[in-house]
Amino acid sequence: MKKHNFSAGPCILPKEVMQKASEAVVELDGIGLSLIEISHRSREFVAIMEKARSLALELLGLEGKGYQALFLQGGASMQFLMAAYNLLDKKAGYVNTGTWSQKAIKEAKLFGDIVEVASSQAENFNHIPKGYHIPSDLDYLHLTSNNTIFGTQIKEFPKTDVPLVCDMSSDIFSRQLDFSKFDLIYAGAQKNMGPAGATLVVVKEDILGKVSRKIPSMLDYAVHVSKESMFNTPPVFAVYVSMLTMQWLKDLGGIAAIEEINERKASLIYSEIELNPVFSGFAAKEDRSTMNATFNITDDGLKELFDTMCKEAGISGINGHRSVGGYRASMYNALPLESVGVLVDIMSELEKKG
Ligand SMILES: Cc1ncc(COP(=O)(O)O)c(C=O)c1O
């Protein structure tokens, strides 16, 4: 049966990407060897890494603007500490919009003074704080563009001269932004890019080299930049699949094209949540994420029926995170509009049965 994969991550990837990736595991582009049994220094893999790095900058509109793209390991969680290790000299600001921001704050506190410039914790992170004051003496301001667990997303980024660092793990490549406003962007691959195991880091070169501490090589962005993201053996499969997904996105028309589809998917589900009394949305309307729609069922008595109907229709991965409860429909780039249609039809059918 066809499955509709709403998993929050690792999650759905384009079918054609999966097909090509599975072929490359057996044999890469007719070379008589598998992608995962050749040297990362081979001509073939070096070309893959170069392409992945340049596609990332191209899609983000950052080519020739002083940025470098890296594919590192350790997940976005490693970036919580690497960002601070490399950029935090004295004081940094963090906007606390959920679990992942909190984890980033915890790591950064090991390296300097952390000012929590704004937080939505008192309301269980159901909205994005706005209009907060940003001290001018910060080394950087850290933001989480999309809060995967709570289903909120920053729509307008703060205007400030302080360098911006952003965790874009769950909405990278999903919407158009002026990415040149950010000095450091990082994202675990396992949402809009590829399998778990690689983390995209996009760093503006002139922000590096400003902290006084010594940085171990593996944690030093400048080392990874100087070695063209090949300081040590990179996660070859994850980089290859990420490259294929970025190529897929480019062929589709880039971020502008996918953004339009993502908005259609989001408006389909959010209008159902708004109109259907059986469901209530978790996130504040103006901050609702186009990637992760979080909602609850208003009548607990209908939960079992809803779960059964979803299961029968092949809907997978819509259980909410344990800290929010309810449901979460993740609608990453590769999720077809049709899958959201199937879910919305079940939601409206449930209303009739309820
Ligand atoms: C916004 C955000 N940041 C960070 C992480 C942690 O990523 P990783 O598991 O790659 O360390 C996640 C994981 O879901 C996430 O959604």
Automatic annotation (TrEMBL):
SUPFAM superfamilies: PLP-dependent transferases. It is found in: Cytoplasm. GO terms for biological process: L-serine biosynthetic process; pyridoxine biosynthetic process. Its EC number is 2.6.1.52. GO terms for cellular component: cytoplasm. Residues 5-340 form the Aminotransferase class V domain. Belongs to the class-V pyridoxal-phosphate-dependent aminotransferase family. SerC subfamily. One of its GO terms (molecular function) is pyridoxal phosphate binding. It comes from Flagellimonas olearia. HAMAP family: SerC_aminotrans_5. Binds 1 pyridoxal phosphate per subunit. Its cofactor is pyridoxal 5'-phosphate. The keyword Ribonucleoprotein does not apply. Catalyzes the reversible conversion of 3-phosphohydroxypyruvate to phosphoserine and of 3-hydroxy-2-oxo-4-phosphonooxybutanoate to phosphohydroxythreonine. Pyridoxal 5'-phosphate binds at residues 76-77, 100, 148, 167, 190, 232-233. PANTHER family: PHOSPHOSERINE AMINOTRANSFERASE. The modification N6-(pyridoxal phosphate)lysine is found at residue 191. Homodimer. Keywords: Amino-acid biosynthesis, Aminotransferase, Cytoplasm, Pyridoxal phosphate, Pyridoxine biosynthesis, Serine biosynthesis, Transferase. This is Phosphoserine aminotransferase. It catalyses: O-phospho-L-serine + 2-oxoglutarate = 3-phosphooxypyruvate + L-glutamate; 4-(phosphooxy)-L-threonine + 2-oxoglutarate = (R)-3-hydroxy-2-oxo-4-phosphooxybutanoate + L-glutamate. Pathway: Amino-acid biosynthesis; L-serine biosynthesis; L-serine from 3-phospho-D-glycerate: step 2/3; Cofactor biosynthesis; pyridoxine 5'-phosphate biosynthesis; pyridoxine 5'-phosphate from D-erythrose 4-phosphate: step 3/5.
